[in-house]
Amino acid sequence: MFKATPNPPGTDPIPHDPALESQKTKEAIDRALDHYLRPEALAAPPNSPKFRPVYLVDPTLDDETLLVEASESLSYAHAMAGNIANSIGGPERKPLLALQQVIMLNELLVNRLLDKLKLPQ
User: Fold this and answer.
1) What is the pLDDT of residue 105?
2) Domain region containing 96
3) Is residue 58 part of a domain?
């Protein structure tokens, strides 16, 4: 007699062992937790292109060099804001003068810190 359907699939030759299955589950859970919750992964961001900084300050620079660079940048910004404020008249000039004053005050703060930071010769 001809059967229209094939024979059912054979049974698994390895018997079902609940202890083996729970061990596999535990290993899979541990791998997933290690992947997402590793302490070293939380301490440092991954080195992937999407987290790469656009601007990076050299971490080996000393404090005095950083303050000198900040002071010079503030000095340039102060001069530019003054030049722009002097070329504009009317009500638009007041915010530029206020910006120039804020820049100047921050420049004074950085310079004061530089004066206090005098390194031993």
Assistant:
1) 94
2) 63-116
3) no
**Model-wide pTM > 0.90:** no
DSSP assignments along 38-107, one per residue: -HHHHHS----GGG--SS---TT--HHHHHHHHHHHHHHHHHHHHHHHHH--GGGHHHHHHHHHHHHHHH
| Domain presence at residue 52 | no
Structural domains of the chain, count: 1
Nearest to 57 by CA among 44, 38, 70, 45: 70
- pLDDT score of 73: 93
pLDDT at 107 over 90: yes
Residue 67 inside a domain? The answer is yes
Token readout for 14 is 């390895």
pLDDT in tens, 68-80: 999 999 999 999 9
Answer whether residue 70 is part of any domain: yes
